Amino acid sequence: MSNAVPPSTSAIATSAAAEEQPKGVGALRYFLVKLGGAAISLAMVILLGFFAFKILPGDPVASIARERGMSAEQADQLREQLGLNKPLWQQFVDYLGNVFTLNFGTSYVYRTSVSELIGQYFWNTILLTGTAAIIAIALGLWLGQKAAWKHGSTFDRIVSGTSLVFWSVPTFWLALLLLMVFGGTLHWFPTGGMVSPNPPTDPVGAVLDVISHMVLPVITMVAVVYAQYLMVMRSSLLEEMGADYLTTARAKGLREDLVRRRHAVPNALLPTVTLVFMHIGGLIAGAVTVETVFSWPGLGKLTFEAISGPDLPLLQGTFVVFSTIIIAMNLIADLIYRQLDPRVRRA
Predict the structure, then answer these.
(1) H/E element holding 148?
(2) Which residue among 45, 84, 177, 187 sits deepest, i.e. has the most Cβ atoms within 10 Å of its Cβ?
(3) How far, in Å, CA of 83 to CA of 73, rounded?
(4) Which SS3 state, helix, strand or coil, does residue 113 take?
(5) Quick one: which of 71, 70, 101, 95 has its CA closest to 82?
């Protein structure tokens, strides 16, 4: 006979309460840890945004003075107006005050507020990169699950091989190639900008004009990004294909198409969630090359012009904005992944 004493009702209740409490505490702790990590990353970005650009070669005042034919006295006055004659620590204090009030100062080149410039160009970048992200995600996930389900077939080899080729192609090279062939030689699409010099006045024509300018830059961004979603989706689905629950689903008489769509694909999507949000931020930050090649009026082109200046306030502002977007997307990815995957919640 066993001598074990059965647990009392109060002991069971206490045990249940102890098991129930860590769930909320664990979720809060996980959120605070991730939020703290994001805050530390943002603080490092702010510090880097000041000191890294201070060591860039070139004197912005000397560059402006040469372009405008200023005398040495006028250059000194401009340096004083821009606050570049102050000690480095004083410039850093002013920079921190500007960042925390979302006032990044005045652009050396445009002679206007950096915050206003960023607000003006931000939505153009969102339009371009958002369209590219939606197409790349949809195309990559769809082709990835098709390739995995037909593993080893001709379709799988062609799709995987093509995506890897595009993935390895430099973005600027592909952008220039599309620009020369479809914009310069064939004249199918505009070679740059967001609207034509004489845009249509009717709403439908104006929208179609913007779309025609988006085609080549969007194709460029999709081509070099969709392979990442395809390969992750393909790999995840291949791991799921041998699972017991799929065998059970087939034993119930479900068609292969339903087994794939209802059972295998939803589970294979879990690792892709993090990748999607991480690369949405990266796609926006990586728009510098594409926007510069196609002269798209967005933050990427603005950043390139700031580097050419050098326009330090504008460069610092775009750097902080791009970095904040990436940090925010990574934080969202971590929080969503925890909700989707119970293994992370139990960890």
Answers:
(1) helix 114-149
(2) 45
(3) 15
(4) strand
(5) 95
